């Protein structure tokens, strides 16, 4: 596989790790795909559930602790998702019957900046295999953006399972759906953790 422009600008350890990930799980570099290469059909999403998100972010990457995941509604990643900052969620086949899910995630308050490009790979049953985000210099496999994409996939899977899924309804509904969730202005969102709330109530 030839190095894409994205790979070329990474430093050597990051480049090696990135090549490893895409060679083992995908078979192409997601950053070189065009919009039309992806499916936006809900039925193509891997069946990611809350358990899969926890086991990836807690057990696999140690990005969150188990108790942070229990208070998932206070997580930055969850707020990114609720605020509709995850968009263009799209999927494509990867190796070993896995699915790639690719998304653009806005920088939180800095909305004028180019959105981040975040991707995850999961088995069809929802087990998250690997992930990547370009928010840091190349090595990010777990960050709030990866978490936000996982929450968005979980929501899409729930929609698929609850909606009577005609072909038309199964088209990717997420961006407009997310906007319908009443999103408070950023200043009003309570970013304090559930832990501190518990302490307040005794
Ligand atoms: Zn990120």
TrEMBL record:
<protein>
    <submittedName>
        <fullName>Uncharacterized protein LOC117552907</fullName>
    </submittedName>
</protein>
<keyword id="KW-0479">Metal-binding</keyword>
<keyword id="KW-0863">Zinc-finger</keyword>
<feature type="domain" description="SWIM-type">
    <location>
        <begin position="118"/>
        <end position="154"/>
    </location>
</feature>
<dbReference type="GO" id="GO:0008270">
    <property type="term" value="F:zinc ion binding"/>
</dbReference>
<dbReference type="InterPro" id="IPR007527">
    <property type="entry name" value="Znf_SWIM"/>
</dbReference>
<keyword id="KW-0862">Zinc</keyword>
């Amino acid at each position: 596989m030839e190095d894409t422009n994205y790979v070329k600008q990474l430093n050597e350890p990051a480049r090696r790790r990135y090549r490893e990930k895409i060679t083992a799980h995908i078979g192409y570099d997601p950053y070189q795909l065009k919009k039309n290469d992806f499916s936006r059909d809900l039925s193509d999403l891997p069946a990611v559930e809350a358990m899969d998100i926890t086991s990836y972010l807690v057990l696999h990457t140690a990005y969150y602790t188990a108790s942070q995941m229990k208070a998932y509604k206070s997580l930055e990643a969850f707020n990114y998702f609720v605020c509709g900052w995850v968009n263009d969620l799209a999927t494509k086949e990867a190796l070993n019957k896995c699915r790639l899910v690719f998304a653009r995630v806005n920088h939180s308050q800095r909305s004028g900046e180019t959105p981040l490009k975040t991707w995850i790979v999961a088995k069809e049953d929802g087990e998250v295999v690997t992930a990547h985000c370009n928010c840091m210099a190349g090595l990010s496999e777990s960050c709030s953006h990866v978490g936000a994409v996982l929450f968005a996939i979980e929501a899409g899977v729930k929609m698929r399972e609850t909606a009577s899924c005609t072909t038309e309804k199964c088209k990717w509904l997420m961006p407009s759906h997310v906007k319908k969730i009443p999103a408070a202005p950023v200043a009003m969102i309570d970013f304090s953790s559930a832990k501190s709330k518990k302490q307040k109530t005794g």
